[in-house]
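Form P-L/3: holo structure prediction, ligand adenosine monophosphate.
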Amino acid sequence: MTRGNPCQLPGMLPNYDPNDNEAGMKILEDLTENVEQIQQRVLEEIITRNARTDYLKGFLDGQFDKQVFKKTVPVVNYEDIKPYIERIANGDSSNIISAEPIIELLTSSGTSGGQPKMMPSTAEDLHRKTFFYNLLVPVMNKYVDGLDEGKAMYLLFVKPETKTPSGLMARPVLTSYYKSNNFQNRPFNRFNVFTSPDETILCSDSKQSMYCQLLCGLVQRQEVLRVGAVFASAFLRAIKFLEDNWKELCSNIRTGHVSDWITDPGCRKVVSLVLNKPKPELADLIEHECSSKSWEGIIKKLWPRTKYIEVIVTGSMAQYVSTLEYYSGGLPLVSTMYASSECYFGINFKPLSKPWDVSYTLIPNMAYFEFLPVKEKNEDGAQYVQCNGVCKENCMEKETEKEDVETVELVDVKLGQYYELVVTTFTGLYRYRVGDILMVTGFHNKAPQFRFVHRRNVVLSIDTDKTSEEDLLKAVTKAKVIVESLGILLIEYTSYADTSSIPGHYVLFWELTSKGNNHLPVLDPKIMEQCCSTVEESLDSVYRRCRRKDNSIGPLEIRVVQHGTFDALMDFCVSQGSSVNQYKTPRCIKSGEAINILDSRVVARFFSQKAPFWELV
Ligand code: AMP
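OUTPUT (holo model):
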């Protein structure tokens, strides 16, 4: 960044030809060599632009100084900035937090008061995202040859969007990007040619979108060099969809006609073009593979030239690694990037590394990064361990004492240390706690690399849902009222994310007793199913959307366990190093052994019989 003039574009974005691999790699080398200077310049630029916003003015009092910024601007959570976001959503000028106009609000999968958090976004921010996506290409090319000799079957989807009272678009970050000019009018890049026509990605009916994208991917199977989706959960959903629909897909390929229920005009038109004419031989071949009893290695069979599967398998997505490995036939699983609605953060410079070895290098011109040190051990002295993206056993880290903990800068993080990420963005977030816990694993040039450890306070996650211990407690509290009215007490509960089938679902283990006599009560299935539904109705809107609209979460299950099960669980946890005095029932279980202890004592299972209410607000 110091050589030449790397910042031709506003917002510290270097300009270069994305088809030029060498130029891309050089930019990455410059960015990672000059971390300190770049971070300082990013902060300077953000302060200079925004010092006069209502928000910063209140702390900086007209000063443009970085030290004053760090001394006076507080490290905040969403609740602290929510009033500002809500004012903007309701029509106040966005310059209360950002000098550059906020053009839309990005609805995050993190929630506040049950509704998605909303993150500000600007026109320039789309360019920042494009810059970031472009940099993924040379990194991949460094490790995999010939990606310009075929196509990528990426299954990408848009989600429902809404408008705020002031008329601003409110939608998820990827929906915003796919609908932008930056995506739709992207210059041709020979390393990044997709099998899915944009019309199929942009189709708002997720079933038609999925069907059409798979159809296009199957028709072009000989050209496909890589397959993927953003998250592992979405890719597995596509495999399940294929399992349920391959006969119809083959019939379309055989006849050259798209099914009548594909009514989206854009989709019909482009898919008909891709189908082109009847292809009976291709249909036979796909039918042959799909009708095989075992779907082990199906990806390699259907798309024989595939070199890897591009899906995020870190964090909560790690729970899908073994299922993906089963379907993939040994293909590498590639997590390319770490990003959020707040900001795009980091790139995996070793894309072929095993899922548990993946680290992301934070890109220093994306935002100004700070880090809150997190204690490595919890009360019981148990080390943090990556275990399906959340910590083992009593899995919550102790809340960092916000007041007396100072942040450290990107260049000052220490190898092996755990931190919570704090960002100051170009879009109006200042010293904002993202909620992700990261561990420093090494350095790429001078840029630290981080393993994603887990998200603060999240105990359950199947897709993009993020359920905290508190959310779960609230939902269980509502449901237990139903059994209490019948003289039944819930004496203990815990949970786990069951991903053994697609889609995965939440499981609650309940130990129940009759009031007074301490016996396992007789349970009415209807009542227990109502409990399952009540828990679902009480979870946040992202859970309910995944469950109802996206069908990416299956019906919630309550498994009633026999008396003494939770004592057995405690004995197990103590045998694993938990202290007896401080033992608290873990509200979420990750360890296979602990799940076996519970499962072997299950006396009855009940499932929710209806999807919970969800609407776009
Ligand atoms: P959202 O705000 O809904 O876009 O969700 C962003 C969050 O998803 C991040 O803060 C992380 O908790 C999680 N996330 C995103 N990318 C990754 C990744 N590569 N590995 C693990 N977790 C991720």
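COMMENT: Residues 108-110, 173, 312, 314-315, 335, 338-341, 434, 436, 452, 455, 464 surround adenosine monophosphate (CB under 6 Å).
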